[in-house]
Amino acid sequence: MSVNLEQWISDHNIDEVECIVPDINGVQRGKVLPAKKFLASVKDKSLRIPGSVFICTIDGHYPEDIDDIWDKDPDKILLADPDTICVAPGFTSPTAFVIADAYNGDGTEVDIAPRTILKKVLGLYQDKGWKPIIAPEVEFYLVSQNTDPDFPLTPPTGQSGRAETASQPYGLEAMNEYEDIIDHIYDDCELMGLDIDTMIHEMGAAQLEVNFMHGD
């Protein structure tokens, strides 16, 4: 049963909605709308985005060898997937995230949109009676604030007042150095309905890894 967007937004007192479409690199692109405007766009299918957004390179440019880029640029229709809506943590104004699918004017899905491709892949599994189960993991480095690009990134100061300088794989004391940000991650994931399985300290200095539960 799909989520009733209007009821959900009312129940969570949402003021603003970030409507997200992933590009081919997994970069989140899309539009931000006042909640009432978002709901109106869902009803009349008026939310649009240029088709070329799906061929952006990782740095926001377009591939040099594509001559017909403007053939791909007519606006595409964004239709929010109600089951993906969640509270967006960290905003002053109550905000929600929702992921959208992209459609052509004739009602067909945009064939180069990553979610369209994923649906086709899932269809191939379904044809064989299979159901893919995955458990994503996210690895990242914590770094000190750096306002000068001429200086290299460095690990942040931990609760001990010192920064890590060596590898600490699975080090629990090393993880405790960053208790505040770890608690923040747990709280935000719970708010968004993301199920964390485990969190570990990886090989690098101030390198952490979050493992999520297996699922669809």
Low-confidence parts, pLDDT < 50 over ≥5 residues?
A: none
Morphology: globular
For the secondary structure, the number of strands is 9
C-alpha termini separation = 16 Å
Main structural class: alpha+beta
- Major sheet: 6 strands, mixed
**Series of H and E elements:** HEEHEEEEHEHHEE
Q: Nearest-angstrom radius of gyration?
A: 21 Å
Mean pLDDT: 91
Strand portion, in percent?
Answer: 15-25%
Helix content: 10-25%
How many helical stretches?
5
Describe this protein with a few key phrases.
single chain, 216 residues, alpha+beta, 5 helices, 23% helix, globular
Structure description:
The chain has 216 residues and is α+β, with helices and mostly antiparallel strands. The protein is globular.
Helices, strands, pairings?
Layout (H helix, E strand, L loop, with lengths): L4 H7 L4 E7 L5 E7 H10 L3 E3 L24 E6 L5 E3 L6 E9 L10 H14 L9 E5 L30 H5 L2 H14 L3 E6 L5 E6 L4
Parallel strand pairs: 1-6
Antiparallel strand pairs: 1-2, 3-4, 4-6, 5-6, 7-9, 8-9
Short description:
23% of the residues lie in helices and 24% in strands. By secondary structure, it is of the alpha+beta class. The longest helix has 14 residues.
